[in-house]
């Protein structure tokens, strides 16, 4: 059975193609903002909610009136941009119904819109557009041309959608593929629970510790210097745009390092264990600010801020997402359990108390005297909870 996966490759456009890609991105950004303004104005003045279908029907008129601008690009890619806005409104209304902070869709500034999507290979775009070329791979994009791709690995499955995204001065193509063949690994007969942390990215129930590289902390000095340089530049100046690009490039490098580390850590776990049990973490709740309000200020704000930064630097969410699809492809079983109490419960006798957690790394049960590394003890509790969930499911 095939799975859905994405493949990301660096583009190597010519100077003319890079200018065309930037123009394509800018026109799609303006289309997004005009469509948002249309919805806002219609509701404010007439109480009318504009839908995607109505805005999509207007595209042909927009393209006809602006043949050298909006008319240059793929109709399907413009529809995808309008669907992107529609999804933003759908998410907004979902948050309203759930009683959460709604966050009304906002206009996209130049630095806030970096991706254009073509929903179907062959409709305004074509992957591997010159298959007869002996050494290079190209992707054809309407209005841009055949852009060379640095394809560092084979693409598997059927290409469904093609996206182009900008990171600083670099351009990438992202292929979303269906029916990618699974790559099952031989059974090992070993199961493990894993505890996520900031001292170690992952600690397993059999005592292994996967290092947390702390990429953001390692780049903090260079980022601080770049931010100081940026703060001294005049808004709208060419030097400020260069300073912004420098900061963005540093953040992009941290993101790529974090992604690479997550891939390697997940691959190691999937290769070693048949069943992996992890905590069902609510990372957004865990990293919520402790500042509070003027009437009710938070406590230990600096410490909480530092913890939040460490959690986000560890990249738990990215790691768990990668682990999930690698486990699916390899035929491994992944189980998520409620993490409540796992760090303060004794893995030997089951006694749970706050006092059991002596230090960040130390665990000493006040009932039976069992001592262990706190993260290993938590990982054993996580494994036990996962196996307890697995047995009824297999029996059914």
From TrEMBL:
<keyword id="KW-0479">Metal-binding</keyword>
<comment type="similarity">
    <text>In the C-terminal section; belongs to the transposase 35 family.</text>
</comment>
<dbReference type="GO" id="GO:0032196">
    <property type="term" value="P:transposition"/>
</dbReference>
<feature type="domain" description="Probable transposase IS891/IS1136/IS1341">
    <location>
        <begin position="183"/>
        <end position="289"/>
    </location>
</feature>
<dbReference type="InterPro" id="IPR051399">
    <property type="entry name" value="RNA-guided_DNA_endo/Transpos"/>
</dbReference>
<feature type="domain" description="Cas12f1-like TNB">
    <location>
        <begin position="316"/>
        <end position="382"/>
    </location>
</feature>
<dbReference type="GO" id="GO:0046872">
    <property type="term" value="F:metal ion binding"/>
</dbReference>
<dbReference type="GO" id="GO:0003677">
    <property type="term" value="F:DNA binding"/>
</dbReference>
<feature type="domain" description="Transposase putative helix-turn-helix">
    <location>
        <begin position="1"/>
        <end position="45"/>
    </location>
</feature>
<dbReference type="GO" id="GO:0006310">
    <property type="term" value="P:DNA recombination"/>
</dbReference>
<keyword id="KW-0233">DNA recombination</keyword>
<keyword id="KW-0862">Zinc</keyword>
<dbReference type="InterPro" id="IPR010095">
    <property type="entry name" value="Cas12f1-like_TNB"/>
</dbReference>
<dbReference type="Pfam" id="PF12323">
    <property type="entry name" value="HTH_OrfB_IS605"/>
</dbReference>
<dbReference type="Pfam" id="PF01385">
    <property type="entry name" value="OrfB_IS605"/>
</dbReference>
<dbReference type="InterPro" id="IPR001959">
    <property type="entry name" value="Transposase"/>
</dbReference>
<keyword id="KW-0815">Transposition</keyword>
<comment type="similarity">
    <text>In the N-terminal section; belongs to the transposase 2 family.</text>
</comment>
<dbReference type="Pfam" id="PF07282">
    <property type="entry name" value="Cas12f1-like_TNB"/>
</dbReference>
<protein>
    <submittedName>
        <fullName>Transposase</fullName>
    </submittedName>
</protein>
<keyword id="KW-0238">DNA-binding</keyword>
<dbReference type="InterPro" id="IPR021027">
    <property type="entry name" value="Transposase_put_HTH"/>
</dbReference>
């Amino acid at each position: 059975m095939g799975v859905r996966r994405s493949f990301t490759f660096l583009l190597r456009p010519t100077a003319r193609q890079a200018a065309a890609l930037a123009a394509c991105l800018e026109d799609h950004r303006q289309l997004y903002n005009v469509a948002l303004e249309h919805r806002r104005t219609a509701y404010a003045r007439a109480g009318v909610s504009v839908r995607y279908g109505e805005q999509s029907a207007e595209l042909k008129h927009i393209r006809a009136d602006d043949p050298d601008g909006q008319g240059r690009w793929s109709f399907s890619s413009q529809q995808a941009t309008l669907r992107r806005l529609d999804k933003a409104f759908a998410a907004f209304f979902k948050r309203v119904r759930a009683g959460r902070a709604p966050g009304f869709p906002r206009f996209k500034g130049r630095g806030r819109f970096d991706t254009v999507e073509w929903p179907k290979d062959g409709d305004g775009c074509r992957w591997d557009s010159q298959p007869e070329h002996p050494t290079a791979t190209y992707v054809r994009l309407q209005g841009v041309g055949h852009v060379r791709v640095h394809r560092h690995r084979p693409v598997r499955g059927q290409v469904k959608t093609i996206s182009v995204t900008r990171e600083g001065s670099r351009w990438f193509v992202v292929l979303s593929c269906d029916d990618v063949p699974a790559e099952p690994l031989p059974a090992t007969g070993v199961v493990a629970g894993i505890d996520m942390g900031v001292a170690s990215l992952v600690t397993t129930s059999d005592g292994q510790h996967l290092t947390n590289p702390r990429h953001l902390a390692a780049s903090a000095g260079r980022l601080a210097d770049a931010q100081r340089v940026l703060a001294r530049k005049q808004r709208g100046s060419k030097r400020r745009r260069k300073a912004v690009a420098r900061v963005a490039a540093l953040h992009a490098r941290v993101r790529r390092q974090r992604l690479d580390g997550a891939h390697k850590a997940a691959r190691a776990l999937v290769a070693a264990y048949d069943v992996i049990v992890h905590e069902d973490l609510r990372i957004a709740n865990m990293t919520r600010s402790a500042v509070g309000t003027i009437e009710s200020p938070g406590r230990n704000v600096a410490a909480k801020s530092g913890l939040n930064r460490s959690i986000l630097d560890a990249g738990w969410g990215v790691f768990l997402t990668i682990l999930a699809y690698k486990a699916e492809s390899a035929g491994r079983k992944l189980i998520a359990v409620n993490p409540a109490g796992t760090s303060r419960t004794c893995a030997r006798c089951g006694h749970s108390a706050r006092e059991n957690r002596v230090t960040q790394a130390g665990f000493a049960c006040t009932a039976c005297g069992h001592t262990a590394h706190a993260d290993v003890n938590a990982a054993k509790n996580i494994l036990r909870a996962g196996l307890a969930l697995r047995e009824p499911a297999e029996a059914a």
